[in-house]
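Reply to dn_fold:

You asked what the input looked like. This is it:
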Amino acid sequence: MQGRYERGAASMSPAQGRILIVDDNPVNQMVAARAVQSLGYTAEMAAGADQALAAVARDRFDLILMDCHMPGMDGYEASRRIRQEEGSPGRVPIIAMTADATEEDPDKCLDAGMNDYLSKPVRLASLSEALERWLPSPACAMAEDSLAASASPAPACPRPPSLPSGRPPTPPRGPLLPE
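and this is what came back:
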């Protein structure tokens, strides 16, 4: 199942946070899409690694939420292939979503070219924190757009971190539900 979920008239434009959700489970896709939308971003879904690679080749995304364990090609290999195809400038952040919670998982994600790691089930607060680490908030994106033509200074919006080659931040565990 591949599809696009957007909020009605209040939806954000793709330039303000277009997120590709890669998961083979349709329920997980819908839950993640609704969570992403509730945070003000646009979600597009891919039902597996092959669909994700095709979507990335066809379109530009601001961030990818990648399930690590899928039938056929897993999220680790899909991330490696995405990194092989893109150049260093403009690398799209890839955040792993996995039900595994071992000490080695964050390192395995980094080794595959992913930028961050969320344990499933993902809490809405953890997802929000991860998106804020890697994307400007929709409010910052709108403010930057409106100030681009003016002489006013740009707002102080956070930029994606430059993580050392160590482990990414390990978020708390819990369900992908509002708190």
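The two ends are 29 Å apart (CA to CA).
Hope that clears it up.
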